Amino acid sequence: MNQKLTQLAEQLLRSGVDDLSADERSVLTRIATRVQVSRNLNAVFDDRLSLGERVADRVAAFGGSWPFIIVFAAVLAAWIVTNSFLLQRRAFDPYPYILLNLFLSMLAAIQAPVIMMSQNRQSAKDRLAAAHDYEVNLKAELEIMRLHDKLDEVRQQHLAQLLEKQERQLLLIQQLVDRRIAASVNPHVTD
User: Fold this and answer.
1) How far apart are CA 83 and CA 105, in angstroms?
2) Positive or negative torsion for Cα 136, 141, 143, 144
3) Residue 191 has pLDDT above 70, yes or no
4) What phi and psi, each to the nearest 5 degrees, are found at residue 90?
5) Are 79 and 93 in contact (CB under 8 A)?
6) Which residues are CB-contacts of 142 (< 8 A; sequence separation ≥ 6)?
7) Is the dihedral of CA 79, 85, 86, 92 positive or negative?
8) What does the pLDDT read at residue 170?
9) What's the mean pLDDT in 23-37?
10) How far apart are CA 104 and CA 72, in angstroms?
11) Are 20 and 28 contacting, i.e. CB atoms less than 8 angstroms apart?
12) What is the dihedral of CA 139, 144, 147, 151, to 10 degrees?
C-alpha cells in the first residue's frame, strides 16, 4: 500500500508522499483503495450537534424569520394598546413602557449570543464543506490525470501496433518488388 501511495504521489502530484498535506495523503489513499471521497456533510455535521446547539440553531432560525417579526410586532402592538388604551389608569407598564424595555433588553441579551453561536457553527460547517470540496476536486483531478495517462498509453500501444503492421506491409511490398525485378531480369523465374 505504501509503495502504491508513493507511486501515485510521484506520478500524479510530482511529489513525495512525505511532502503532501494530510488532505492530499487522504485523497491518494482513497484513490489507491478505490474508496469514494464524497459524503453527506450535513448529516456528518448534524450528528455532532448537542441538544443545546440544536436548540440554539432553531432559536436562531426562528429569530431571523418573518413569522418571528410578525409575532414580535403583534406582541409589541398588544402591549402598547393594552397599557395605553385598555388599562389607561391601572396600566401595569405605563408610557414610556419601562417593563417592556427591560423585557426587550433581556430578549436581545439572550438572542444575540444564541444567533452568534449558530453563525459560528455555520462558519465551521462552511469550512468543513470547503475542505470536503477540495478533497473531492483533488480526487477528481487526479482521476482525470490517471485517465489521460491510460489513454496516452493506449494510444501509444495502438501507434506501435500500426507501425508494426506498416513495417510488415512495407516488407511484403519490398518482397513483391524484388520478385518483380527478379522476374523482369530472368523471365523464367515464376512467382
Assistant:
1) 19
2) positive
3) no
4) -115, 30
5) yes
6) 8, 12, 13, 27, 28, 31
7) positive
8) 95
9) 77
10) 10
11) yes
12) -170
